[in-house]
Each structure stands twice: as structure tokens, then as C-alpha cells.
Amino acid sequence: MNGRVNKKFKIIYLFLLLLPLVVFILSFNIGSYPIPLRDLMKTLISPFFPGVKQSLPSTYLSIVFGIRFPRLLLALAVGAALSVSGASLQALFKNPLVNEYILGISSGAAFGASLSLVFLRKGIPTQIMAFLFALAAVFIVLLIARGSDSPLISLLLTGVIVSAFFSALLSLVEFFASPYSLQALFFWLMGNLALASWQELAISLPVIAVGVVLLILLRWRMNILSMGDDEAQSLGIDVKKEKMLIIFLTTLTTSAATAVAGIIGWIGLIVPHLVRMIVGVDNRKVIPFSAAVGASLLLLADDMTRAVASYEIPVGIFTSIIGIPFFIFLLRKSRRTWL
Amino acid sequence: MSIKIQDLTFCYKNFALDVKNLQFESARMTSIVGPNGAGKTTLLKCISAILPVKRGSLFINGMDVAELKGARRARLLTYVPQEHGSAFNYLVLDFVLMGRAAYHSPLSSPSATDHKIAREALEFVGLSDYSWRPYSQLSSGERRLVLIARAFAQNSEILLLDEPTSFLDPKHETEIMTLTKRLAEERKKTILITLHNLDAALKYSDSMVFMKNGGVFASGKAEEILDENLLEKVYEIPMKIIHYDGRKFIVK
Questions:
Q1: If both were cysteines, with which of A52, A295, B55, B230 could A20 make a disulfide (CB 3.0 to 4.6 Å apart)?
Q2: Into which CATH architecture does domain B3-86+157-251 fall?
Q3: What is this model's ipTM?
Q4: Do A236 and B106 touch (CB under 8 A)?
């Protein structure tokens, strides 16, 4: 690789890493309540300049810092969480098609969260229920798939079955739910960031941050685990322990994201693919860049749901409708590079 | 680094490996030969603890292998698989770098020193110009060389190579065997290599182990144990040993 190519890559990398910040700043301008750009700028810098603050209407302050700021932050966090989890699981299971859905994490989390939303309204927080059931779903899948001759196929099959089982349980909860809680549950299941508040962020953000940072630190180990169990062991890795650690962390981040944002599909599959097409398959790059690109893309998707219509389409529906055709395109385009 | 095996047993489905007593000398190259299904690969996988071994059956320099933990064992011995198949198409340099995993904690990434070692490893196998190529675009001979480079980067005292020359053309076979021999002679590595090519085994290795039906049939220096009678018993077809140019050749 000569110097010029290297330099070109460095510019691309820098662009990708700065992307979330750029999208974040631009996204403040989007929403149903119009704020002139000049005033928006003033509002954004007002915490640092008390003088500016007094000249602004208080509506601007509460919209920008009370509503938009937490929502944008949540979109970034959830996007990063889902993408990093997806990329990690793909490395771990040596398969670029694995994601949180296939392993039952999402349906487990959905069921746990629904229990909390419908029956335990003020009891155990949604996050904890989502996490517990996500973990339960993953362990059931791993337990059933264990010791098979073709681990991957049995893993995918049990994943589908366990997901279906938790979906059935979810239907049961829906059946017993009151119309009011049913509406809340439906809204949540479709995946949306509209309910974001500082309160929600206070619980989820630290969990997601810890999970994502640890997974990013483990990025090189994922290369080695993607070599397969025998080789990874021969290379000096405690395969069982490190696999469990990564599964635990992906479950933690995915369920924390699911608990606040509902089911947002396809981000965990598409973003790592997109990133691999740009930076190659080395997880030392794939994992951190998945975080940056995933955060930016989910925020952009959320911006679009707010910008295209006067009412809000849940972002989960949006990512699936845009995501699936895009994924088919990616599959066709990149078939030869990794499959 | 000597390897000592006593009463090593391993069972899987219909196959049983049972090695009563076997020792491998330090800084020497030992070929393990025998018919398909004799247990050669299973033996290598047991020694490298990919397959579980019982306590007190396998010792390396007096240490019980069953009690050695991941990274420590990997710094002591390296298993080189016959073929590597991954869904992800890593660049050759990144692939070789993975040999350094045993020197890192789970949360750290390779350093500049590791990169230097990986480049040296590629230089050793003659693939310095291949650093930025995707692994899957290499020929199968080049892939084997990359696997050896990764083992070189892992820098363990003992290398276990599982049929590194199968399906290779004569040039690549010679290349691999010469490199392996150099690892034993120049770098004082202890090498165990499974082979089907008996002529290559005779030419390059210091001693030989003949395996059959999960057990050791004969072991020792080739000149001491090898005769037509042994070959026929092990392979169940008549073979002839001919002398040419001061070397022995085996003709079927």
C-alpha cells in the first residue's frame, strides 16, 4: 500500500469518525416546531453565554434542550449500540448474516419490556426486564444449539424457534393488555425515539456507553474468535470465556437500546456490511466505525421520519422499509468479497 | 522443549486414540506418518489440547499440558491447521498479526512491535510483498505459507503442523518442507509434522513415528526402524525401498 492510498483512507476514516458529530449538529434544525437558524445557533451556544440566554424565548430553550437534545443523543446511542452489537455477533459466529434478531435477543427483550409496560407499570424498570429476558432468550438458544455437529445451522434454527416462542408470549401479553397499555406497547414495539427524555437517557445511556466501549476494546479479539474455535484456542484465547463475555455485552447493549427505543430492525445487519465495504473486514476498524456510522445513520433515519410528514412515522418501520431493499442491494454487490 | 506422552487416550464415536509411550526430542523435526484414519491429526490436536487430554498423560518440559491455560499454552506450542476457512477475508498482514494474540490481554490491540514481528514472519516465508493482499485471493500453497508465518509470529517453542503439504505442487511442497526444516535447525523449534509423502518425511525429518489404528506402530530414527516389512504392515500394500544418489526412496 503506497503513501497516497494510505492518505486517501485516512481522510475517509476521519470523515466517518466525524460524521456523527456533524449529523448531530445539523439535526437540531429538524422538527415540527420551526426555529429560525439564527435563533437555533444562539440557543445552542446559550449555555456558555448567559447574556445570549436572556434574549431568547424560553420555548426555544425547552424545545432544543428538553426535547431535541435527548432525542438526538438517544438516536446516536441506539444506532451505535445496535451496529456494534451486530458487528460483534457476526465476528463471533463467523457469519456476516447473524444479528440480534436471529439469536433471539430482540424478541426476548421485547417480551420482557412488554411485561413491564403492561403489567408492572411502576414496578421493575423496562430496561431490567428487557435485559433479563434478552439474556434468557440467548442462553436458551445457546443451550439448545450446544454440541451440535453443524453449530451454525442449529444456532440459526434454534434462534428462529426461540424468537417465535417469545413472539407468541408477547402476543399473549398483548391479548391481556388493557387498550391503553396496548397502545403504548404497540408504539414501543414499532421502534421509535419520540419518547426520549433525560430521565430515560439517564438509565440507558451509561449502560450503552459501557457496553459499546468494552466491545470496541475487544475488537481485535473478535478477529481471532472469527477464525473458529480450534484456531482461536491454538492462538491462545480462552474461547468459551471470551465468547460468553462478548455475548453478555452485546445482550446488555442491545437490550438497553431496545428498552428505550423499541424494536429497531436492520441497523445491526446493514451498518456492519456497509462499513466492511468501506474499511475491509478487520474488526479493529469494523467495530469502531460501525459505532460511528450506525449512530449517524439512525439519527439521519430519525430526522427523516420527522421531516417527511407532519406526523411521525416510527423510525423502526422506516429502517425496515429502507433497510431491506438496501440490504438486498449490498448482498448482490458484495457477494464475492466475503461469501 | 521435550514432549513426553504416557498413556494418552482419546475416544470419539468409533475412533479411539491410544498412545502408550512416546517422546519427542527438542529442536528436532519429527514426521508422523500412517494411513488415513490412523489418528495422526487426533494426536496433534490432543498434544495442542484442542481435544481434551487427561491429567498426567501429556507433559511438555515436565509441565502437565492439561493444566496449562490458554495464552500460556499458546506461547509454548502452536497448532497449524491444514486449511483455514473463514467467512471473513482478512488481509495477509492482519492474518499473521493474529499470531500475537497470546501476548495480549483481551482488551488490548497489537502494537508496533507486533507489526514488526508479523512483517518478519512474512519475510521468513518469502511473502513480504503480500501484506496487503486478501487471504482468499492467494493460491493454496501461499495460504499454507501464511499459516506458517502466523505460527512463526506466535513464536512458540513447539510447532505442530497438520499435513501442511497435502494437495501442493512439488515446488510449494519443497518450499514448505525447507522452511519447516529451517525452523528446527535455525530457530531450534521442536516440530511435529504429519505427512503422507514418505519421501519428504525421509528427506527432511530427524525421526519418524508410524501410526496405525489409533496407536503408535513404530517410532525412532528412520535409518533404525524403516524397512519394507514395516511399510507393508503399516500401509497393507507391498512397498520397495530403493537407493539412489545416496538417499532412500520408497516405491509403491
A1: A295
A2: 3-Layer(aba) Sandwich (3.40)
A3: 0.90
A4: no
